[in-house]
Structures are given as structure tokens and as C-alpha cells.
């Protein structure tokens, strides 16, 4: 047992060294950020906009980790006198002095600026608030989140444990609250690690959790778990973990967490605790070629599909592509048994997915009531082998097509549906 604990300690120490940005990297980011903020401050002043700047996110909270690229959150806190619909336009106006400004549409438009190939600044307009009751959008709470964590999480040990937790979630594709990920947000991880005291304690708590929901109320805003379940809005109780936001007790900071990502974390955490390995912190890339070889060995039908959307890259494109993938999956299930599947969004306007399936022998199609003469005729025209049961007509269909043929025919037949779902193309 002691050997395992020592091994875990050595692995986490090594991981922390690798994920902590170097002094040179941090100095470069600070230099670029300082120059940018000077220009932005001047632009705001010249435009006579009543707004103040604050840097948020993991950079401000000292929980920043090394990744392929860095995103720095910069918030413009607008005076309450401004209308909700004004602040995005005023932010855009203040950014006209900069190049490469990309407007990103959402519940409130924000902006992304490419500073270097690996460095991006996200400029987010918010309303200046001092209490959650004044917020009009979730992003308005960001200042309160930074204020809370900066006050509570001051121990270097906990900050390091948060970095390790983020690296673990990032490696296992369960980091981020975006609708196409539905994982753990950075803020949620900060709160959870602070509550449990370390990454290992957090990992143990999740991996050993029973079937009932995990409920965390750091500030004890509620009397007990029953009080939370009784008083929180039902829409906020759907996630496997209920994490009461310390700055807004009616909010579940993990409302976006899906069962799928929770199970990914639980499975990988249990695996790491049982057999500690640095591989648990390495980003896993799907070996598509090997997946195809494995499928063929098992005599499964395999297809790799590239899906493209015309919607804006980021959360909008990612959620559209995932929604379509889920819809296509449900259509495939009608005719095939899915043995393996995979989906990956590239961060721009494209996603790739594969399906390994076995063909069903036949399917039964439900038809109309036999008294519905008009629809009865059209059903019989569409299907050759029919039978009647309890005054309803049904049809048997033998499956004589493979998965690639099915997707091709389905996409041709449902071109209108693809258009409605903002899908530009399907390629094999």
C-alpha cells in the first residue's frame, strides 16, 4: 500500500512539473496581456464607455495549466446603466483598434482575438454586479467567482492539486462545460478540489460514489441534502453531481455535467487509483486504423464519417455537430446493433465519428390504423411484406444493406433534415 502511495506521489509530482507553464511562458503571456490591456483601456476611455476591465478565468486564479494553446479571459464590467443588448456592441466598438477580432454568438456575444498562434484573448462583456441577484447572465457571476476563489483558495498545495485535476480531466476529455463536452468546468473543479482537499480525495469520492447523487454545499447554504433537493429548481437537479455555487445558492455549478462524462471520470479515476500510471494524464488520441482492424476481426461493419457544419466554430458548431451525431446514431440503431462508436469535434467546423455495427436480420415498421384508408394505401406502396395485428398494419423489412450504404441513402433521403440541422456535408 505504501509503495502505491509513493508511486502516486511521484507521478503527481512529475505531472505537475509538466503542466505548470514555465516562467518564460508566463512572462511572455504577461507581456502581451499588459500591452493589450493598455490599448484596451485607452480605447474604452476614448469611446467614453463606463466599463472596467478585469482578468478572470484560470489565469487570474493561478490554476493555469500548459496546453496546446492558451485562452485568457478578459471581462469588461459595464455600469448597470447600460442595457443588456448594448454591451456587446459597445465591446465590439472598443475592439476596433485590434486585428483578428472574431465575434462569437451566444446568449451574449463575446469576442476572441488571436495574439499569437498559441495565445488567444477572449473579451467578454458583463454587467457590473456585487450580488448574484443583479446578474442577467451567468457570465456576470464571473467576477464573484474570481473574488470567492481568490479569497478561499490561497494554499499553494490546493492550487497545485487543482492544476492536477484539470490536467486529468483534460486528458480524459471531460474538461469543459461547453454543450458539446458537458464535462467539469474549471470553476467546478476548483470548488471540488478545495472541498475534498486534494485530487486523490476527489478521485476517491467520485470512484467510490454509490448510485445516489453526490451533493456538495461548501458554504452550508442549506440545512441538509433533502433541503437542497426540495428547494433547488428541478432543471438544476439532473446532473450526477449537485455543486451549490457558493456565490449563488440557487445555482448548481455542475448542472451541465452529463452522466457520460461523469462515468468517464469515475472509470478513469478508479483505474488510476488501482494501477497508478502517468498515462492517465496523457491525452488519448483515438487510433482509428486500429479500431477498424478490431472491427474487421470481430466481423463488424465499420464506417468513418466526416461531418461538416456551416455554423460558427466553437460551442455553436460543436453542439450542432454532436446533436446531429446523436440523431444519426439513433437512426442507425433502427437497423443495426452498434458495437463501438466514437465522436470527436475538431474545434472548428468539422467533426469525425465512426460506427462499428452488426446488421439486424429484419426490422418491423409500425403502420397506421387499418381504418385510415389513405395512409394505409401509401404504407402498402412503400412496403411489400405487411401484416395486420390489433387493427394496425405492420411491415417486415429484411436488411440487405451495409452501414455505409445506409448512411448514404439516409442522407440523400433526409437532405432537408440535414439542412435544418445546419449540416453542410457528410463524407466517408
Strand order of the largest sheet: 1-2-5-4-3
Number of strands: 15
Order of helices and strands: HHEHEHEEEHHHHEHEEHHEHEEEHEEHHE
Weakly predicted, low-confidence segments: none
Overall mean pLDDT score?
91
Report the portion of residues in β strands: 15-25%
Taken from the alpha-carbon principal axes, the silhouette is globular
Radius of gyration (CA) equals: 26 Å
- Approximately how much helix is present in the residues? 40-55%
The number of helical runs is 15
Q: Supply the helix-strand structural class.
A: alpha+beta
The main sheet comes to: 5 strands, mixed
Q: Would you write up a description of this structure?
A:
By secondary structure, the protein is an alpha+beta fold. Helix content is 42%, strand content 23%. It contains 15 helices and 15 strands. It has a five-stranded mixed β-sheet. Helix 8 crosses helix 10. The longest helix is centred in the first third of the chain and has 24 residues, at 23-46. The two termini are 50 Å apart.
Supply database-style keywords:
single chain; 428 residues; alpha+beta; 5-stranded mixed sheet; 4-stranded antiparallel sheet; 15 helices; 15 strands
List strands and helices in order, with pairings.
Elements: H1 2-19, H2 23-46, E1 51-55, H3 57-61, E2 70-78, H4 87-94, E3 101-104, E4 110-116, E5 119-127, H5 142-152, H6 156-171, H7 186-196, H8 199-207, E6 214-216, H9 225-231, E7 241-245, E8 248-252, H10 259-274, H11 288-297, E9 301-309, H12 315-332, E10 336-345, E11 350-359, E12 362-369, H13 373-382, E13 386-389, E14 392-398, H14 403-413, H15 415-420, E15 423-427
Parallel strand pairs: 2-5, 6-7
Antiparallel strand pairs: 1-2, 3-4, 4-5, 7-8, 9-11, 9-15, 10-11, 12-14, 13-14
Helix pairs in contact: 1-6, 6-7, 7-8, 8-10
